[in-house]
Structure formats: structure tokens, C-alpha cells
Design goal:
Layout: H1 13-20, H2 23-31, E1 56-59, H3 65-70, H4 77-86, H5 90-93, E2 99-101, H6 123-134, E3 140-144, H7 145-152, H8 161-166, E4 175-178, H9 186-191, H10 194-211
Parallel strand pairs: 1-2, 1-3, 3-4
Length: 214
């Protein structure tokens, strides 16, 4: 969203905007965004968590219906599983000075042919670059699902999501690709027991190191 009509600033305006506004001001603009409201069956309600001191970034997909209703990121079964994988409780997870949460689409996109619809494509080009510039202290980006991996890993991805997650050491320790923690992925977890055995313990150790108060 940039002006009252909900349009984002153009590419040339984004760096200038970043230079002159505070993080809080930028977040106010993002949370008021209506850029793709016409395509959102439940209306625009951007959900994100950002603080310049955060050391861990969760790059997810898009809010689900429960998160849309509450306005709290990952306040659902997926969030319960993600917090378990990370080895932290809600008090740490929702401490914006420790954990930033930036989905690829900030608003609930509604349902698609199978589960939730993809993140709206307008969101990331409009807001992701200026928001990521605020997160200069991030030392670990947890990259959840295909859309986030397309953006954050790009050509470094493997042929499939499973192969990308299996090659997690190629991105470690700055980034870690994960499957989506949704209960819909229970079958994937059963078929890939190495994930819980090998990847999750390393994730917990790194998150604990980065979120411990000094």
C-alpha cells in the first residue's frame, strides 16, 4: 500500500521511503495495505511481526483462516508444530525483538482447489524488500514451503521441496528450508523420518543460541 488507494510505492520510491521513515512508520503503512483487497474473499488483514533487533526470521507462506480471525501469526496447529520444531514457547516466538515473522503474503488468500490458496503475488514485490532491510540483525532465516523457498533460495533450490529440505546443510547456518508444519504434511513427515531425527535437533540448538537473552 502506498497511498490511500492501497497501491505500493513504485520501485524507485522504495529506497527513498526506507531512508526517511522509521520501522514503526513502515509497519503502519504495511498494516494498512489494501493492494490486493479486491482479490481477498475475507478482506485485507495483513499479519506480520517485525522488529529491527530480531535474530531469527520466519519466512512463511500466508496466514490461514484462524490467523486471519485472530491477527496473530501462527496461532494455529501449524504454529504449535513450528514452535515445537524450533524448541521455543510462545513467549519467545511472539517476542518481536527475537523472532520476526514475514509470510510471502500478509493476508489470508482464502481457499483453493486443495487447501488454502497461494499467497497473493502482489504482496512480496510491494513490501518484502523494504521490510527485509529493517532486519539487519537476522542470523537465521527459517524458510517454510515452496513459495518462500522460491524467493529466499532462488536458483540454489533443488528439484523438489523434499530434495531442498534434505540438502539443508547447503544453506546452513544462515538459512534452513522446512516443509510446511501444517497437519496436512503428516504423511510427508512419516515418509521422511530423517527430518525429525537430523534437522529438527540442529534447528532447536541454533534457535536457542540466537534467542537466549544476553
Amino acid at each position: 500500500m502506498g497511498g490511500a488507494n492501497g497501491r505500493p510505492p513504485d520501485d524507485s520510491a522504495v529506497p527513498a521511503m526506507n531512508a526517511r521513515v522509521t520501522a514503526d512508520a513502515l509497519l503502519r503503512r504495511v498494516r494498512a495495505c489494501t493492494l490486493c483487497a479486491a482479490h481477498l474473499p475475507h478482506g485485507a488483514r495483513p499479519v506480520l511481526q517485525v522488529n529491527t533487533r530480531a535474530t531469527v526470521l520466519i519466512a512463511g507462506q500466508a496466514p490461514g483462516s484462524k490467523v486471519h480471525a485472530s491477527g496473530i501469526p501462527f496461532q494455529d496447529a501449524s504454529g504449535d508444530r513450528l514452535r515445537d520444531w524450533m524448541g521455543i514457547d510462545a513467549s519467545v516466538f511472539y517476542d518481536a525483538e527475537q523472532v520476526a515473522i514475514l509470510p510471502m503474503g500478509f493476508c489470508y488468500p482464502g481457499t483453493g482447489a486443495s487447501g488454502d490458496a497461494p499467497p497473493r503475488p502482489e504482496c512480496a514485490p510491494a513490501w518484502r524488500a523494504p521490510l527485509l532491510k529493517l532486519l539487519g540483525n537476522v542470523q537465521l532465516t527459517v524458510v517454510i514451503g515452496q513459495y518462500a523457498q522460491d524467493y529466499h533460495l532462488g536458483i540454489r533450490q533443488k528439484a523438489t521441496l523434499t530434495e531442498t529440505v534434505r540438502a539443508w546443510r547447503d544453506y546452513w547456518p544462515d538459512a534452513l528450508p522446512l516443509p510446511h508444519p501444517s497437519p496436512r504434511n503428516n504423511l510427508w513427515l512419516r515418509r521422511n523420518p530423517w527430518f525429525l531425527a537430523e534437522v529438527v535437533p540442529e534447528l532447536r540448538t541454533r534457535v536457542r543460541t540466537l534467542t537466549e537473552r544476553r
